[in-house]
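Expect chain and fold; thus:
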Amino acid sequence: MSFLPLAHALASRQDLPIPAWLFAWAASIVLIVSFFALSAAWREPKLEDEHRRPLEERLSAVLLGLPLQVLCGAVGVFLLGVAVYAGLRGTEAPDRNFALTFLFVTCWLGFPLFSAVLGDLFRAFNPWRAIGRTVGAGFAAIARQRPAHLPYPERLGRWPAAFGLLGVVWLEVIYGAGGIGIEPHATAVAALVYSAYTLAMMAVFGVETWCERGEIFSVYFGMFGRLGIFGSSEGRLQRRRFLSATTSWATIPGSVAVVIASIASTSFDGGQEGAFKAPLESVVGWFADAGLGPTGSLRWGETLFMLACFAGVGLVYLLGVRGMRTVPGAPSLDRLRVGFGHTLIPIALAYLVAHYFSFFVFQEQAQFGFLLSDPLGTGTTDLFGTASLEVDYSVLSANTIWYVQVAALVIGHVVGLMLAHDRALVYWPDYRKATASQYWMLAVMVAFTCFGLYLLSVSNG
């Protein structure tokens, strides 16, 4: 995240008691040991069945009932409105305006973190879904018939969300290149444009269809929500086996591209001021020599690097999938590519936690302190008496941040191995062949782990 000079600068640490390269070696050992432990003890698929257990009926009626849905939707619309208003009318100082921290930290980072534990929380608070459903209900009441929608092209799948995800990161990280980041006014305008686009797509294809396939935030946050233990089905809140809901997520076209875009965009953001800095400066210099100007050169150079990250992450995954084809009895390449796509979701979450953990902790102090009391950042309001509060950077030590980062990467990749091993047992009932196929995924997980630790060690060192 570039709009506030907090996370990466403040996460810079003193000399670690253990060298970074040794962490990478130890993490690889953990993955290898986990791999063989899974091979020995896990010989039948356990996650293909979600084992849903309905919660108490009255609790479901309250949590999924219309009154609470209306309330949550209204809260989402109200907060979006506050963010847009703050962006349009508030200060242009990015560290004092409510809009940037709320949209790019509280929502962008908060929903994945909490949804990974509890399930898809964004669905209830989605402001565009709330508006779309309200308008649809009003139309049905007036016209006495449900609005007609065009059928959604099956091949299009979640590709709009995948490209949109890269677009959101481009707007925040690259569009504001050359300065302190994207301005609050530009963020508010982008939110209004996106709102108009989203509501138009909902009118064309239907609210729920577009939320499931094309709406960036519903798809992105919902992806992490599949890791959580709570979900709903047929109007009933249910508890499900941890991780089991991920197994069916990638069946829609474009889903694998969404999770790859998540890993790639986080990698790019974490590496642009560290591991990628020198080569990026060279590419920017080439564009400058071509006469694009400082800002244009920086934007084009960083765009090229972000796309290269997307291609690189995708290539590593496809090489692992391609390698599994060498195991006797392997299904088609397309089936393997789709079938193992969900195994990257915990890795995407691990990268998110590792790169933004300290940033989230520091900025939420600002969010629920001075930004909440003075959302416009003008210094003229103090709604809750907290406008004078400041961020306490001492709540996390530099070494604590590093250990959390390492733990997140290792745990995320071990969970990815679990999901991959479970899916392999579906395609190869003989556990020996399933294990042989997973040497390739082990290589993918080790590569992603070492790459993530390398990015962190360079940017924080």
In short: The two ends are 18 Å apart (CA to CA). Residues 3-14 have pLDDT under 50 and may be disordered. The CA atoms of residues 424 and 434 lie 5 Å apart. The first strand starts at residue 53 and ends at 54.
